[in-house]
């Protein structure tokens, strides 16, 4: 992958070319941006550009041995770390799956990745053993290139194990580069953040996504509608091409109906269903809920139909304007935010969902504002 294949992010591309061409590459960088904006694909292109022995003004040449190996994710001096499942798992155990997954979609999210490796209900993490493998690889000499590059996708999953890498990130061996590809800086250890230069990525424009979809053969009308709904997330746009409805959307809207009706048997059945989803799917459910409530707030305030909701979601949102008042949006959002936090801290999902569904019923039926 080279810079020319990446959608948008022209300012970031120029910045990265400049630091490489000027031989001023920071030893540790964080590519920080929301899902689907191209942080991982940019890390792949950047590492290929660094390794290329015949790069030009546009990017890597694409034909030298270093470029060929980089594009196939088999360059011996480019190392990948990503969330896996299992207390002693290392990224190397999933190397073939990783190459296939990012070849198919370098904009994928962690939920898609964990489904790809059949994680089922297990939660992803970056283990102590993986950190040990990074330290060991960093101590070795480069095999072919001038640089040794470590790409750590989603360092948020390092948790406290990230402390094992602090000294290495702060004082790496000569010509060793770290690229941390992150979505949420608040979930990364401050001691790691302070040791890295942050490169921020903006959401993609609707025109960027429209063009990317048209290049994949999507007709203009459908592509334009999807680009609007995707809200700067190319991964979401690619998903919407193949799916008529987002699973999280269907589930969240179904849950709101259960919350409103408040039937005990439905609440228990729903909580049982939710508990079987697995931690990553549960977190994405609440993330979608927060997204829906943000768009609902815009609709409630402005009455503007141009909110980033599908036709079915918009219909539901309009119906909810008779039920959810503006002052109730904040307490509902607080419930969703707190629930996402508790799920990430391994709260019992069945108990949690039962509790918040009852609380939501009180808000929706009794006009509780706090």
Quickly describe the structure:
The protein is an alpha/beta fold and 370 residues long. The protein contains 17 helices and five strands.
Descriptive account of the structure:
The protein is α/β, with parallel strands linked by helices and 370 residues long. It folds into 3 domains: 3-202, 3-Layer(aba) Sandwich (Rossmann fold), CATH 3.40.50.300; 205-243; 247-366, Zinc Finger, Delta Prime, domain 3 (Up-down Bundle), CATH 1.20.272. The protein has helices at 10-21, 39-51, 65-71, 95-104, 110-116, 128-138, 166-170, 190-193, 206-215, 220-230, 234-242, 247-261, 264-275, 279-302, 311-320, 326-344, 349-366; strands spanning 28-32, 78-81, 148-153, 176-182, 197-200. It has a 5-stranded parallel beta sheet, sandwiched between helices. It is globular, with a radius of gyration of 22 Å.
């Amino acid at each position: 992958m080279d810079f020319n294949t990446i959608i948008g992010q022209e300012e970031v591309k120029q910045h990265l070319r400049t630091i490489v061409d000027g031989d001023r590459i920071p030893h540790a960088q964080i590519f920080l941006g929301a899902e689907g904006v191209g942080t991982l694909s940019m890390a792949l292109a950047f590492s290929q550009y660094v390794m290329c022995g015949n790069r030009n003004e546009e990017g890597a040449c694409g034909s030298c041995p270093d470029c060929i190996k980089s594009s196939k994710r088999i360059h011996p001096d480019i190392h990948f770390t990503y969330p896996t499942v299992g207390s002693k798992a290392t990224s190397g155990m999933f190397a073939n799956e990783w190459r296939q997954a990012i070849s198919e979609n370098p904009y994928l999210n962690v939920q898609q990745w964990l489904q790809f490796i059949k994680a089922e209900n297990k939660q992803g993490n970056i283990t102590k053993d993986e950190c040990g493998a990074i330290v060991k690889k960093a101590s070795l000499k480069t095999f072919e290139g001038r640089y040794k590059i470590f790409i750590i996708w989603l360092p948020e999953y390092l948790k406290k194990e990230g402390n094992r890498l602090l000294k290495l990130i702060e004082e790496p061996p000569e010509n060793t580069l770290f690229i941390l590809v992150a979505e949420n800086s608040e979930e990364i250890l401050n001691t790691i953040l302070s040791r890295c230069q942050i490169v921020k990525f903006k959401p993609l424009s609707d025109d960027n996504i429209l063009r990317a979809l048209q290049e994949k053969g999507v007709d203009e009308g459908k592509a334009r509608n999807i680009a609007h709904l995707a809200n700067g997330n190319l991964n979401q746009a690619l998903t919407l091409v193949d799916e008529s409805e987002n699973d999280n959307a269907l589930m969240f809207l179904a849950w709101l109906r259960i919350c409103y009706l408040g039937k005990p048997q439905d609440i228990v059945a729903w909580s049982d269903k939710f508990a079987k989803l697995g931690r990553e799917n549960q977190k994405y459910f609440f993330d979608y809920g927060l997204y829906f409530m943000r768009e609902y707030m815009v609709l409630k305030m402005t009455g503007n139909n141009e909110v980033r909701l599908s036709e079915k979601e918009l219909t539901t949102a309009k119906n909810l304007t008779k039920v959810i008042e503006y002052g109730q949006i904040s307490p509902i959002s607080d419930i969703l935010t707190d629930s996402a936090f508790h799920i990430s801290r391994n709260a019992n999902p069945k108990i949690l969902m039962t509790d918040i569904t009852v609380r939501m019923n009180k808000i929706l039926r009794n006009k509780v504002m706090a």
